[in-house]
Amino acid sequence: MNQSQYAGRHSVSPKTVTKWKERGWLVFAGDEVDVEASDANIKRYRTKGVGSVTQGAEGNGQGKAMAGVTRASKKVTIRDGETPAEAAVRHLVATGADMNIEEAKRVKENYLALQTQLEYDRDAGLVVAVADVARAVGEEYAKVRTRLLAIPAEHAPRLQLLKTPVELQDALQEIIVEALEELTRDGVAR
Asked: pTM of the predicted model, to two decimals?
């Protein structure tokens, strides 16, 4: 069956069938349209209830040219020994679009539901942004660092008076515990 006959079979204009061909929806056996394989693609990719891509012979009266189906940077190249349908499937799989309309709608609805749930959880305070947590942890580490670096300057005069390693160890233990308790109290006060 040629493209004009195929257009008549689906009650669409020949321009619509040309668009289907550009999209890789038509499968050819030589110069003829493989009706069974093409019908399967049309059923898979064409949204139910959507009319033809172009109006019939009478036109739509707008005079507005339609944009190409794909941008030049996204065109699919057909490899040696590969049919246009195989190239289209390869491209769809490579771009993650190997779904029919119903599967795509399901994925979209699930995505939107998960996005809404995440927004609700964020507003309820059940989840926080990683950047906010990283900033808070960084601020706390900066406080710990500052406090620990201040210990030698604050306590050196007292520590130099100690005579034995045991006295020095006990004093350092006491100073470190005191600094950690101070830092813990700062965190609770928030």
From this structure: 0.37
pLDDT digits (tens, 9 = 90+) for 19-54: 888 888 888 888 888 888 888 888 877 765 344 444
Kindly report the backbone phi and psi dihedral angles of residue 40, in degrees, each rounded to the nearest multiple of 5, phi listed first.
-65, -40
Hey, is 177 helix, strand or coil? Answer: helix
Decide if 12 contacts 38 (C-beta within 8 A). no
* Element holding 9 (H helix, E strand): helix 3-9
d(CA 165, CA 103) in angstroms, rounded, equals 73
Helices (H), 59-189: 84-94, 101-123, 130-159, 165-188
The tokens of 121 are what?
């959880």
**Cα–Cα distance measured from residue 83 to residue 25, given in angstroms and rounded to the nearest whole number:** 12
* Contacts of 125 by beta carbon, 8 Å cutoff, 6+ apart: none
| Amino acid found at 88 | A
Q: List pLDDT tens digits, range 140-182.
A: 999 899 989 998 888 888 888 989 999 999 999 999 999 888 8
